Amino acid sequence: MRRNRVIAFGVLAAALAILLVVLVVNIAGGATPAPVAATKTPSATPTATPTPSPTATPTPTETTPVAPPAPPAFDKAAFSIDDPLSPWVVVNKTRPLNPVDYTPPDLVAVPVAHTWDPLLRAEAAAAIVQMFDAASAEAGLSLASNSAYRSYSSQVSVYDSEPDDATTARPGYSEHQTGWTMDIGAASGNCSLNTCFGDTAEGQWLAANAYRFGFLLRYPADKVEVTGFSFEPWHYRYIGVSLATEMHNTGVTTLEEFFGLPAAPGYLN
Ligand SMILES: [Zn+2]
Fold first, then answer.
1. Which residue, 215, 261, 246, is CA-closest to 78?
2. 182 alpha carbon to ligand 1 midpoint, in Å?
3. What DSSP line would sit under 191-215, residue for residue?
4. Cystine design at 191: which of 67, 144, 174, 196 (Cβ 3.0–4.6 Å)?
5. For the chain, what are the domain ranges?
6. How far, in Å, from the CA of 148 to the mean position of ligand 1?
7. Which pLDDT tens digit goes with each residue over 56-109?
């Protein structure tokens, strides 16, 4: 009997061993992972390398100074060039005063050094005082009036005594009759009413600074054919600070050119 038990145990053991081998083989074979490679799509193409956003750099517009608004264009029609009352009235050998015996309404004595008692319209008189004071304060120069307002009748006398159309205006054609004009010299009298006044310190200061006070050197040396008058470095015409400054800044030196008027080299008759 003992031999049978041994045999039975051996058979059982052998069966278990076989079962174990089968299980191991099945597990080993069945556990082989199926290749999953094909399902994974390669994300090889790099998606959008991050470009630096433009807002990262500081925008220069915030620090760029804003251009100031353009100044309004100069209004050339702000005042009349025909009305003898206007500070812009243009009087020359083709544009007599209208009426020819016009008399300004507000003449005042000008309280400055002078050779002949000067009268000007009130606005021009005040500007003359400011300009003479500035010449003294800024440059130590003493100016004087040699002639200012001249009436129609006084221009008759002037023209009769010197009937030279190149140097003396006919009655009714003189800027002096407007009350806006003064012949200015040095208080010393050096070169008064002479072209050499343009070379004096007083003449040079006036040429450079008169516009600041509303005055224009009316008869420049290089515009004789436009104005009809020889160079007169002493003859200053009040036109107001706005127009004088505009002409200074734009480099236009005669009223005829500034207002687009024909040249007036001589009288029409
Ligand atoms: Zn004059």
1. 246
2. 6
3. TTTSGGGGGSHHHHHHHHHGGGGTE
4. 196
5. 107-258
6. 8
7. 555 555 566 788 888 789 999 999 999 999 999 999 999 999 999 999 999 999
Using the structure block, give the residue that is written with the tokens 């999953």: 36
Q: From the CA of 2, how far away is ligand 1's center (Å)?
A: 164
Tokens at residue 37, please? 């490679």
Instruction: Find the 240 Cα to ligand 1 centroid distance in Å.
Output: 18
Among candidate residues 188, 212, 214, 217, the one with its CA nearest the CA of residue 202: 188
CA angle 169, 164, 205 (to 5 degrees): 60
Domain 107-258: assigned CATH number: 3.30.1380.10
CB of 170 within 8 A of CB of 163? no
- Give me ligand 1 centre to Cα 30, in Å: 126
Q: How many angstroms does the Cα of residue 218 sit away from the middle of ligand 1? A: 9
Read off the pTM.
Answer: 0.74
Which residue shows structure tokens 């407007």?
178
Give the CA angle between residues 139, 124, 130 to the nearest 5°. 25
